[in-house]
Amino acid sequence: MCVLREIPSVRYAFIQAHSKSYSVESLCRVLDVSRSGFYGWLNRTSTSKAEENQLLEEWIAEIFKVSRSTYGTRRIRKALNEHGVRVSRRRVSRIKRKLGLVCKAQKRYKVVTTDSNHALPIAPNLLDRQFDTERPDNAYVGDITYIPTKEGWLYLAVWIDLYSRAVVGWSMADHMKAELVTDALRMAFFKRRPEAGLIVHSDRGSQYASELLRKYLDERGYTQSMSRRGNCWDNGVPRTPYRRCFIKDESVASRNRVAGPGFKQRRAA
After folding, report:
1. Band of pLDDT at residue 221, cut at 50, 70 and 90
2. What is d(CA 267, CA 21) in angstroms, rounded to the nearest whole number?
3. N or C terminus of the chain with fewer C-beta within 10 Å?
């Protein structure tokens, strides 16, 4: 390609690219352009580049702020690309360093669903890890888990029939009070009508030791059973469906830091 045949801006770019090897004056003379024209173009180009860098810095800073200081170069570049801004990860990294943008270390969040530090009555462990039964509605086991939403945590209580391993009762609320587990058991009662003598097993959480639940059990002739202190294996069955459904995830809050929880509202869950 003959540079002499190109428009001035192309010749100016050629001069800039070779200015370290040859003098600007010689290159301008050979390419038949004026030095004033070249320096004017160079100044305009530099100004345009500076404006572009400034705008890019503002975008990157805003994306980083919205991400709560969690986005690295890969996700910032992806966010820019989604808005039609093409930029390399190297350039994003360079701007991040210039602006002093350092990602925060992600914390692990764990919601404590079992509070066994209370003075409420504790039932003996009648189930004693005997998780197999010969007939339905002979023993139920219960547990509480949690689901993240943008409105806050949503708590889910379930009761599972040991015979079928099916969820026979459940309840959801924005709290972990005694009503949560009692309402779930009420659902199981109206669905299955278990007879007196049913063993109702759970951990030692205050919800299960509450007067509300104990009264409900006494009214129907059900027998309460509780796990030993600090022994999750005594109540292992109800946790299995949670893991299978990816609900029982103790580090669930560490996912999607920017996008947030999967549900905008509790009712959507």
Report:
1. very high
2. 69
3. N
* SS3 of residue 142 by DSSP: strand
Which domains, and CATH codes, for the chain? 3-99 (no CATH), 139-268 (3.30.420.10)
The span from the CA of 269 to the CA of 13, in Å, is 58
Beta carbons of 172 and 269 less than 8 angstroms apart = yes
Measured in degrees and rounded to the nearest 5, phi and psi for residue 144 equal -125, 135
Region of residue 189 (phi > 0: left; psi between -120 and 50: alpha; otherwise: beta): alpha
> Which parts of the chain fold into alpha helices (H)?
8-18, 24-30, 35-66, 73-82, 89-99, 178-192, 211-220, 239-244
Sequence-separated (6 or more) residues with CB below 8 Å from residue 266 = 149, 151, 152, 154, 172, 174
Separation CA 257–CA 120 (nearest Å): 38
Give percent helix, percent strand, percent coil of the chain, each to the nearest 5: 45, 15, 45
